[in-house]
């Protein structure tokens, strides 16, 4: 990059990639404005181009105030006659009011909250402004509450940027308003939009009816007159579609190449009769469900191939994924290789360990647990046994992908709860062997759109049925004030001979406060609420043996009521437990609650999941939790979670290593995603190495968009 002598020189300095020019070098941008822009995430010209309007206003023909209709979103223009604070309801309610006239009529603009000084300052008598919002009638007068407003200066008849057109409305910040933003965007779009490149082959553009990329940005920022305002506001204009398509296309192209690349790599072909797996199944005393059978046969087919498997098992809680994955692991072990199971938390690792080693050690298979709790000599010894191959199945957290861990012959990597790992970590685990097979399990049903982006490079198996005989679980929300009623429900069930869980949130495993809560709660329940019951406590800080001991006691009904943190989220099977009370349910994600309630309803009794919520402060929390009462379908719940919390928060996709979308929104734009994926996969099918001359720009575009996050070794 060029060395800059005067940082705010008005002479544009040439950047090799002009799109990377810092905004402060754009005409009319000084250090003060640059700082404000930075607050909006705009550092470079490219950031600016991608800072799309949040909505649009139709100012092609401004109506007179007398023409504005109540009940509609309207835009008007006028001069301020009066402004100031008004008081209603015996001075209890303050409202800032601005009376505007254009000669044809008057309208009142009202603000029910907002900074008085700031409002007074901005809306001074005599100023002219443009306003828009929903018009209503009140006391024989038109008014708009919290309108979008813009102070107008100069001659509007000559202002073709802010008037006489469909006007973009940008997201503002204090001190940075529409007119400034619009002026800046106009400059950036005019001077830099030609630099934007999206080398999608012409054939695809034609098939998908897509316009030129630079033109798309010009139209999205400053729509031409004929554009439909509705489509613009829905982000469905041709310009929007083109930009969104670009984002999805290059993501999917990367995933398609990755998938294709893996399919071409040399892997291990596991050919075995599967005696160990059969023995294992025999000991389990149940039959696999059809879905499990199908998934297993898909896995076995993959494993026999001389290329690495890359498969996702998706299925609801308790659908029996672990069992299937373990059968795959046993096939690998039988062929003389090792398997690793990696989980996102220690608690999960320990839970898996407890189940797995109980299941397979009788078959002579050696299992080791590797988490950060395993220390010193014990850890060294485990390393040694992994290196020698004595340990055949390793279960652990990130510890498993640490440098010191060397496998003798890693044949299969099983990753549980993939969403916490992402594409990048998956790659690290793979490197521990020579192209081992990879099996990803997610106990959380992933909505289709997310699966297409997060797991777009994997083959997917779906376990879509639960083992027979599961009893329904009813879910009910109770407010904190109904705590005693909840205790009575628990009491009744225990008196009938059932057992109960009481779950405490433990947001971070290290949160001491939460831990204290759970511990104190156990004591309180034992001493003051249920003196005749046996109350137990289980949390993530306990040693493995302690946990196992408590679980055994619970299983043998030596404990009636188990107070636990989310340790019990997975792997615990207590058919006699028929009630679960979740404390502070509002602090859990929906999918996590769904996981939790999968712990009950496993025996012959109808079960109840009680969500104790402290949601006085949050209506949103209540709406969220109500989804739990309505449905037991994990996919629906996951979709709801995704919708309410947005893709960014949904299991922390940010950490997944995928490129962020700047414009696209996977829920809103699903149909474009599907098309982009289809086209990307078709292209890779036809030209797996992107060698055709007319695909020349694609590699570079991919590199830029993925910034090294995708290993594109196979395309060179
Ligand atoms: P997941 O990992 O999908 O949540 P698990 O593999 O842990 O589910 O299985 C949940 C419980 O159901 C376990 O106790 C397991 O032993 C049991 N299970 C699994 N498959 C079957 C089946 N086909 N029939 C009966 N029980 C099963
Ligand atoms: Mg599981």
For the structure shown, list the relevant keywords.
alpha/beta, OB fold (Dihydrolipoamide Acetyltransferase, E2P), Rossmann fold, seven-stranded parallel β-sheet, globular, disordered N terminus, binds adenosine-5'-diphosphate, binds magnesium ion
Brief account:
The chain has 716 residues and is α/β, with parallel strands linked by helices.
Polypeptide structure, described:
It is a single chain. A hairpin with a 2-residue loop joins strand 5 and strand 6 (141-145). It is globular, with a radius of gyration of 31 Å. The chain has 23 helices and 21 strands. By secondary structure, the chain is α/β, with parallel strands linked by helices. Residues 321-322, 443, 570 line the site of magnesium ion.
CATH homologous superfamily identity of the domain at 473-631: P-loop containing nucleotide triphosphate hydrolases
CA gyration radius, whole angstroms: 31 Å
Strands side by side in the biggest sheet: 11-12-10-13-14-9-15
Instruction: Please state the structural category.
Output: alpha/beta
User: What percentage of the residues does DSSP assign to strands (E)?
Assistant: 15-25%
What name is given to the CATH topology of the domain at 473-631? Rossmann fold
Q: What is the 3D shape?
A: globular
The set of bound ligands, ions and cofactors reads: adenosine-5'-diphosphate, magnesium ion
Query: What is the tally of beta strands?
Result: 21
Enumerate how many helices there are, as a single number.
Answer: 23
Proportion of helical residues: 25-40%
Q: Ranges with pLDDT <50 over ≥5 residues?
A: 1-12, 651-655, 712-716
Distance between the termini: 26 Å
* Major beta sheet summary: 7 strands, parallel
- Average pLDDT works out at 85
**CATH classification class of the domain at 473-631:** Alpha Beta
- The CATH architecture category of the domain at 473-631 equals 3-Layer(aba) Sandwich
